[in-house]
Structure formats: C-alpha cells, structure tokens
C-alpha cells in the first residue's frame, strides 16, 4: 500500500470481449486473425510495389507508402495482444506494457490524422495547380511534409501517456477494453483528473480536428476546381485521382467521431469496443484494398510487378 486505499499497480487485466460466450470469442479470434494477416500483407504489398515500380514514384504514392507503414505499426500495437485475450492465453498486461501500448496508439493515431491532411494537400496541388505540381511537390518538399506529419505524434503521446500513468491507481485493475485506451484506464485512477481531461479535450481538438479542417478546406477547393472543368470526362478523371483518399478519410473520421464524440449516455463500453474495432482493425485492412481496387495505376503496377517476379522465377528455373 502506498497510503490510504492507493495500491501500486503492477499489471492490468484487459477485459476485451470476455462478456461474450467462448464460441463467439473463438469466432472473433479467427475473424480478427484473418483481418490482421490481410492487413499486414496488403500494406506490405503496397509498400513493396510502390517502391519497385517506377510509375509509382510520384508524391501521391510516396505518402501512400507512409500511410501503409503507419497502418502496419498501428495494427502491431493493438491486434496481437487482442488476439491473445480472445483465446485467454494471457489477459494481463504489465504496467509498462499498458503505457507503451497507449503511447504508440496515440503516436500512430495522431500521425494518421496529419498524414491524411498532407495527402489531401497533395491532391489539392495536383488538381488545382497541375502544371506547377512537379515543382511544388519536389522530393525535398514531400520529405518535409512527411516529417511534419510524423512529428506531432511524439509530443502528444509523450505528454498524455506520461501524465496519465503518473496518477495513482486504486481498486480494480480491470481495463474494460481490448487495449489500453485513455478513457477506460482513466476510470481506474483515484485522483482528481479534471485538468488532464481538459487537456485531453483541447488536445483532441487541436491534433485531431485541425487536420480534419485542413482536409475539408483542401477538398472544398478541389470540388470548386473540378466543377470548373468543362468536360464530364475531365471531371471524372480529376475526381478519380482523389476518390480513394476521400473514402479512406471518411472511414477513419466517421469511426473516430462515433467512438469519441458521442454523448456519454449513448456510449456504453461494449458499443465503444465495437466502434473502436472499425478504426483500429477494419480501416487499416480496407486502406490497401481501396487503393488497389479503385486505382488503375496501382492495379497495373501489381500486374507488372507480378509478371516481372514470375519472369525472373522462370529465368532462374
């Protein structure tokens, strides 16, 4: 005992989906395992193909590689531990392990917001200033934009995680979630967290909604530019270059908003778990599928890379 009812917490128990029958948990395990493998394979293929194919060395695919790398990291932080809890291998997570998982969850989550905003800016320049696009989005500029997209996650994750885990914990150590998210861990704190909660709200507005506003501004300008194109074919071609990104952004922000911005009276722990699955598990799987199926350049690159790999194999044989 550290004094009063405060207890030094050495580990937490992730409740995950323990309220569901064992048969359902086994089914969820198989489902999430398949999704996890598809996510890793799909995003890895996007990275390899956009690196290998010279036709995909444009800024758009440079940022897409960054997004795929981010999605792989996001999945590695959340899914393996969740799969273990579903089979009840080990539902416990150490104090340090919980803090580390939360740190990288914040890091990748914030960085994805800024990276999606950067990708929207890239589409804005490509459609609104096509003649100046190669000059504006040169290698140096895209590298700076990538660094600027990855950097915000460091201070946000460091401050929020360090602050939260500096609080004393008491009573139960059961986290009613499938990973160490801030709200369920915060409920275990036995101290005044009002200032931290204000910071969390301000941080959410600043680091989540600001990129969202930048995306909205970019697409407002893009829509205005597309409407000025006289031919229907030209409009379709311009829209098709940003439709994949727009769909990815919509999936990410809609699921994020439904999880964190619903009234508390409508936000039960079980419903929040289901909504959290959409942006932590499902969206990272859908991103490479969306960019592959809705983008002819990526589909053609997959074909060229496959044929090249097949030809090389035949030559070796």
From TrEMBL:
One of its GO terms (molecular function) is olfactory receptor activity. It is a multi-pass membrane protein. Residues 42-291 form the G-protein coupled receptors family 1 profile domain. One of its GO terms (cellular component) is plasma membrane. Keywords: Cell membrane, G-protein coupled receptor, Membrane, Olfaction, Receptor, Sensory transduction, Transducer, Transmembrane, Transmembrane helix. The chain crosses the membrane at residues 27-51, 63-83, 145-165, 198-217, 238-262, 274-293. InterPro entries: GPCR_Rhodpsn (IPR000276), GPCR_Rhodpsn_7TM (IPR017452), Olfact_rcpt (IPR000725). It comes from the Eukaryota. It is found in: Cell membrane. Putative odorant or sperm cell receptor. This is Olfactory receptor 10A2-like. The gene is LOC112667940.
């Amino acid at each position: 005992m550290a004094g009063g009812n405060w207890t030094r917490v050495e580990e937490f128990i992730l409740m995950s989906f323990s309220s569901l029958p064992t048969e359902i948990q086994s089914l969820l395990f198989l489902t999430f395992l398949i999704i996890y493998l598809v996510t890793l394979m799909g995003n890895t293929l996007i990275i390899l193909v956009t690196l290998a194919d010279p036709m995909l060395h444009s800024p758009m695919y440079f940022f897409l590689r960054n997004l795929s790398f981010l999605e792989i990291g996001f999945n590695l932080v959340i899914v393996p531990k969740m799969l273990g809890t579903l089979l009840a291998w080990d539902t416990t997570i150490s104090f340090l392990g919980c803090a580390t998982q939360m740190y990288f969850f914040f890091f990748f989550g914030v960085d994805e917001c800024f990276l999606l905003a950067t990708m929207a800016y890239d589409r804005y320049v490509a459609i609104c200033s096509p003649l100046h696009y190669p000059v504006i989005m040169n290698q140096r500029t895209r590298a700076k934009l990538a660094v600027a997209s990855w950097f915000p996650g460091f201070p946000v994750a460091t401050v929020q995680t360090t602050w939260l885990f500096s609080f004393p914990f008491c009573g139960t150590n059961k986290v009613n979630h499938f990973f160490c998210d801030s709200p369920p861990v915060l409920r275990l704190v036995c101290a005044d967290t009002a200032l931290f909660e204000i910071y969390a709200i301000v941080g959410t507005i600043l680091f989540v909604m600001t990129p969202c506003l930048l995306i909205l501004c970019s697409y407002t300008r893009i829509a205005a530019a597309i409407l000025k194109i006289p031919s229907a074919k030209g409009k379709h071609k311009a829209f098709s270059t940003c439709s994949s990104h727009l769909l990815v952004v919509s999936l990410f922000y809609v699921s994020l908003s439904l999880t964190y911005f619903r009234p508390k009276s409508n936000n039960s722990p079980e419903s929040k778990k289901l909504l959290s699955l959409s942006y932590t598990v499902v969206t990272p799987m859908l991103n490479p599928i969306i960019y592959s199926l809705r983008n002819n350049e990526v589909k053609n690159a997959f074909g060229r890379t496959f044929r090249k790999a097949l030809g090389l194999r035949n030559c070796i044989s």
